Amino acid sequence: MYSTFVDHPNRTHAARTKPVDDVDSRITAALAYIDRHYGGQLSIHDLASMVGLSPSRFAHLFKEITGFSIMKYLKLVRLEAAKRLLAETNDGIKSVAAAVNLPDRSHFVRDFRKVHGVSPTRYRLAAVSRRMAEMAAK
Questions:
Q1: Digits of tens for pLDDT over the chain (138 positions)?
Q2: Of 23, 43, 68, which residue is a domain's last?
Q3: In CATH, what number is assigned to the domain containing residue 133?
Q4: 75 with 67: CB under 8 angstroms?
Q5: pTM to 2 decimals?
Q6: Which of 36, 69, 100, 113 fits 78 for a cystine, CB–CB 3.0-4.6 Å?
């Protein structure tokens, strides 16, 4: 998922972001863990402990390497997963939000729109239209 956000338009501090080749293995491990466990409760303290860093050092390194705060990255990963669920399932918006651990529907809709440029409902409608057009073309 890291590479998905390297060129994300909302990324900050691009000049300070290190090339992927220079990524600290501890941060790589944390990124992989976040990508696999985004639906659970993740804290900076737990992630830092997992990779053997203090929370402040971990947060500093993470932002230096990715250009995102840990919580911003986690939210982006969750919103990307929500996008996939909206396109691939018929689950309601509230269920999708809960599945990616963004249970407050109004915050989820606001954040989704901010990141993806459309509401979750409009995104789903567009995804369904694309799927139907692909099936009709076959």
A1: 555 554 444 444 343 445 544 568 999 999 999 999 999 999 999 999 999 999 999 999 999 999 999 999 999 999 999 999 999 999 999 999 999 999 999 999 999 999 999 999 999 999 989 888 888 888
A2: 68
A3: 1.10.10.60
A4: no
A5: 0.81
A6: 100
